[in-house]
Each structure stands twice: as structure tokens, then as C-alpha cells.
Design brief:
Layout lengths: L10 H10 L9 H14 L3 E7 L3 E7 L7 E3 L6 H6 L3 E3 L21 E8 L5 E9 L11 H27 L10 H18 L3 E8 L2 H8 L1 H14 L10 E4 L4 E7 L3 H18 L2 E2 L3 E2 L2 E7 L6 H17 L5 E3 L1
Parallel strand pairs: 12-13
Antiparallel strand pairs: 1-2, 1-6, 2-3, 4-5, 5-6, 7-9, 7-12, 8-9, 10-11
Length: 332
């Protein structure tokens, strides 16, 4: 009977390495699509796919056939055996293989032959797999995993290059004054956060934040003082983005945003109120209001909601907070 294999002993390190590549829930990439096309043609496969396996799910970065879903729960995945065993795996017939007896998915798939090899990070952890499947059971004539292993090695090399490029991208997408992500990076991560929430089913919340009457700071105290206020708030904001997938960004002159993964409306409201309280306690001087304050618009992604609609709801909340007298929050 099927029992999902236990995670490897180095699971924490494996997940940390996977996270470091910043690859999950990214858009399609021709470099990886090319790999699965080659694998499919070389092996005469009905489907080839390159996937990454996190704590709960297997996510397909590239797949040569849309009949394969873009993600599956890890405990329902055949490829979880590759991660657990730290080795390649060839199954002549997934419907009769002893190791898949009672598997909730394998017996119902339109494919029967399976071959998968580990996809390793530069630290050696198996963070995913490169696989081919065929409708007919049994290995093709003169079948060998040699080319599949070579393609996995190329994929790993591309992954490392992706990581290096991401590090350069972070440097180029950082706001010089505050050290936060800039608007370009926010836009990319906002789309990605939306994709991740759709895949995992976990909540995601967005806070849009404006410094209240900031023009009066520049006009009354000078632009140097205004820059100091922006920098001080920019230093405070990341302390409220504590999860690895959270993002604090400066998206305009005095406009900021917090992307909060895995955070429901109650959690987002609590965090927003804490931000208001912390800013009040910091007592940053304002020439007409006494101290600097912010208005906050809050929106938690609704099931099936488009990314643009999610953003617009947070924006409406921000305008409602301003209309309510500022220094407050409203949910859009």
C-alpha cells in the first residue's frame, strides 16, 4: 500500500537551497522549455517535465504537454520518490509497480512508463526532477537514462545561472534611498505572489502605504529632511515583512507596499495596526501634523481573483483610509 516516503535527513537544508534559487512560481522560461522538448523528442515520450519539490508540493517549471497539471501535492507525487531516494528511478509500468501499489494518482494517469532523474542544486541537494513518461508500458528499445542525466546537469547549470542573475537583478531593483525593493521588483513579485497563492491555496495580503502629507515635509523642512523621513520609514518597514516570501517595497515617491505571503485578513490587519503603532512610537517630526503618519489600504486575495483586481481593492482601501482622516487603515 502506498505510503509517501519520509523526507531526506537533510530536508531543511534541501528546502533552504531550493528557496535560494528564487525559482518557484516564476513564469515560463525558454531555457527550461528547451530541455523538456529535447527530452521528449530523444525518448519518444508523450510528456517530459522539469519540476521542483518544496515542502508540500511538486511544481512544474516546464512541461511538454498541457495534459500534465502544473502542480501536485507532494504526497501524491511519484517524483517524491526521487527526492527521498536521492537517485534516479525507472518504472516500467506505474499501474503494476510494487512501490506504487495503492498510489492515489499513478494508476489513473494516461501514462504508464516513467523515468526520472534527480535535479541537483550546486550544494548537491535533490531539489527537483527531470522526467519522461510514455503511454505504453515498458522501456523503449535500448533505453538509457544517460541523456536524461546530461539534460538534468544542464538544467542545474541553468539554475545556478538563474540564481546569479537574480542576485544581480536584486541589486538593480533596489531603491537607493531606502534599500527596499523598487517598483519594478515589486511588480514582478506581486505577480509571482499571486501565482503562488493560486498554486498553494494559502492566503496572501497586500498593504499599500502612503506617508501622510509628505509634500509638507519637503516644503517645510527641505528635501534633505524629506529624504531622511523616507529612509527612516524604509528602515522600519522590513521588520514587518518577516516571512521569506514577504516583500517590502518603495513603489513611488512617498508610496510603499508590503506583500505578505501566507497572511490572512486578520493577520494583515494586526500587522498593519502594529506598523501604525510603531510609526507613532518612533515620533518622526512632521511640520504640520506633529509626527509622521501613514494611511494604509489592505486587501487579501480572494479565491479566483485576478491580480489587477486584488491590487485595485488595496488601492481603494488606501483612498478610504485617506478619506477617513489618515493615520489609519481600511480594507478594500
Amino acid at each position: 500500500m502506498w505510503h509517501p516516503p519520509p523526507p531526506p535527513a537533510s530536508e531543511a537544508e534541501r528546502l533552504a537551497e531550493l528557496q535560494s534559487y528564487d525559482i518557484l512560481d516564476t513564469p515560463p522560461d525558454e531555457r527550461f522549455d528547451r530541455i523538456t522538448r529535447i527530452a521528449s523528442r530523444v525518448y519518444g515520450a508523450d510528456v517530459a517535465f522539469l519540476s521542483f519539490i518544496d515542502v508540500n508540493q511538486q511544481w512544474m517549471k516546464s512541461r511538454s504537454c498541457d495534459a500534465l497539471h502544473d502542480h501536485i501535492d507532494r504526497d501524491r507525487s511519484v517524483c517524491t520518490l526521487v527526492v527521498a531516494s536521492d537517485n534516479e528511478m525507472v518504472i516500467e509500468d506505474m499501474r503494476t509497480a510494487p512501490q506504487l501499489e495503492g498510489h492515489p494518482v499513478a494508476g489513473n494517469l494516461p501514462w504508464r512508463f516513467y523515468a526520472g532523474v534527480p535535479l541537483r542544486g550546486e550544494q548537491g541537494h535533490v531539489i527537483g526532477s527531470l522526467c519522461v513518461m510514455r503511454a505504453e508500458p515498458g522501456a523503449p528499445e535500448a533505453f538509457s537514462t544517460d541523456i536524461l542525466r546530461d539534460l538534468a546537469a544542464i538544467s542545474s547549470h541553468e539554475l545556478v545561472l538563474t540564481k546569479r542573475n537574480a542576485e544581480l537583478r536584486r541589486l538593480s531593483n533596489t531603491d537607493a534611498l531606502t534599500g527596499l525593493a523598487n517598483r519594478r521588483m515589486f511588480d514582478d513579485e506581486f505577480e509571482r505572489s499571486w501565482r503562488r497563492a493560486r498554486r498553494t491555496g494559502e492566503p496572501a495580503s497586500l498593504l499599500l502605504i502612503d506617508l501622510d502629507h509628505f509634500k509638507q515635509v519637503n516644503d517645510g523642512l527641505g528635501h534633505a529632511a524629506g529624504d531622511a523621513v523616507l529612509a527612516a520609514f524604509g528602515e522600519m518597514l522590513p521588520h514587518h515583512a518577516r516571512r521569506s516570501d514577504d516583500l517590502a517595497a518603495r513603489v513611488g515617491g512617498e508610496e510603499f507596499a508590503l506583500l505578505l505571503s501566507g497572511t490572512d485578513p486578520n493577520g494583515a490587519t494586526t500587522l498593519a495596526q502594529r506598523l501604525l503603532d510603531d510609526l507613532a512610537a518612533a515620533a518622526i517630526p512632521h511640520p504640520t501634523r506633529g509626527i509622521v503618519s501613514v494611511s494604509i489600504g489592505l486587501a487579501t486575495l480572494a479565491t479566483g481573483e485576478a491580480a489587477a483586481d486584488w491590487y485595485q481593492r488595496a488601492d481603494r482601501g488606501l483612498y478610504a483610509a485617506k478619506a477617513a482622516g489618515r493615520a489609519t487603515l481600511r480594507e478594500g
